Backbone:
């Protein structure tokens, strides 16, 4: 079982990425590149972990009307496809990439509504799949028809079954998960998402540390707070570190947070200490932003990136 990862994506998306350098709002713009890729946070995590060499199963809800792109992607990556097919098309997310400004603008649609029957089928599938996997990653937004507490209930079930659970979501779903009696083992919000979920400003490093420390005392094992170009603050019972990435030429920031989740999950499975886990996770993110799509660079390039990550001890011990 060690090394096997199950990812859940309730609201996947076909990512339509258009490169349009210097595009202007309200104007006719010229595009340079176009790609259509299987996406969604859990799908991206599965892709990165498969690139790393892990055995991965991806499940969730997938529109049957346009599933071909996902099916081809899973075959190419070697990811086991355990998605429940639902009537209708999976949503399309538009991403405008501006190389000149090193910016990405996202347009996300709500997705297909989840029916009670589809959720029952998915939950039965999760129950069958979870025992064969060491870690479960719950990632992305909730589609219409799914209550905010859905992830929180899944976390409780999976942790009670002895699985390591990582959660990467935002909004009411994150608020509910962090208010629950049993928290995920790994939580990876960005600074703004965590502030919104906890209902208070977290503008200083001290405030972020106190928030992370509180989550640890309530059952989380690892809290990673991403902060864009400033890297990430990663806190566990070992202490707290700030990982700062090297400067690279940014192609697209799409999937950078998902790559960090994948890096942290792989580091957990390899039992890496906190500083090395931070290096790997940051190297995954750096490798991702230098290319389009959910693809990791070769291991040699990842090793070089990891060696260029600056890891600073922020706190010796979390009490």
Residues:
């Amino acid at each position: 079982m060690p090394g096997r990862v199950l990812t859940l994506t309730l609201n996947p998306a076909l990512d339509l990425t258009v490169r349009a350098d210097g595009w202007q709002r309200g104007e006719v713009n010229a595009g340079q590149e176009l790609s259509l890729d299987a996406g969604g946070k859990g799908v991206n995590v599965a892709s990165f972990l498969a690139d790393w060499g892990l055995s991965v199963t991806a499940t969730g809800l997938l529109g049957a009307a346009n599933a071909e792109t996902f099916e081809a992607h899973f075959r190419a990556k070697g990811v086991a496809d355990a998605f429940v097919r639902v009537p209708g098309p999976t949503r399309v997310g538009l991403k405008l990439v501006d190389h000149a400004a090193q910016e990405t603008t996202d347009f996300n649609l709500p997705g297909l509504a989840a029916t009670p029957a589809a959720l029952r089928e998915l939950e039965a599938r999760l129950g069958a799949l979870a025992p064969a996997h060491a870690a479960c990653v719950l990632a992305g937004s909730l589609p219409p028809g799914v209550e905010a507490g859905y992830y929180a209930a899944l976390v409780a079930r999976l942790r009670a079954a002895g699985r390591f659970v990582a959660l990467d979501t935002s909004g009411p779903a994150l608020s509910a998960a962090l208010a629950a009696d049993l928290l995920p083992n790994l939580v990876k919000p960005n600074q703004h998402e965590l502030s919104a979920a906890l209902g208070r400003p977290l503008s200083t490093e001290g405030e972020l540390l106190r928030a992370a420390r509180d989550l640890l005392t309530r059952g989380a094992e690892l809290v990673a707070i991403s902060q864009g170009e400033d890297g990430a603050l990663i806190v566990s019972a070992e202490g707290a570190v700030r990982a700062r990435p090297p400067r690279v030429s940014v192609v697209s920031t799409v999937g950078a947070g998902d790559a960090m989740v994948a890096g942290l999950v792989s580091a957990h499975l390899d039992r890496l200490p906190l500083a090395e886990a931070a290096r790997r996770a940051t190297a995954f993110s750096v490798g991702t932003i230098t290319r389009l799509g959910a693809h990791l660079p070769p291991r040699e390039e990842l090793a070089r990136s990891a060696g260029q990550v600056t890891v600073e001890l922020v706190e010796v011990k979390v009490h």
User: Anything to note?
Assistant: The chain is about 35% helix and 25% strand.
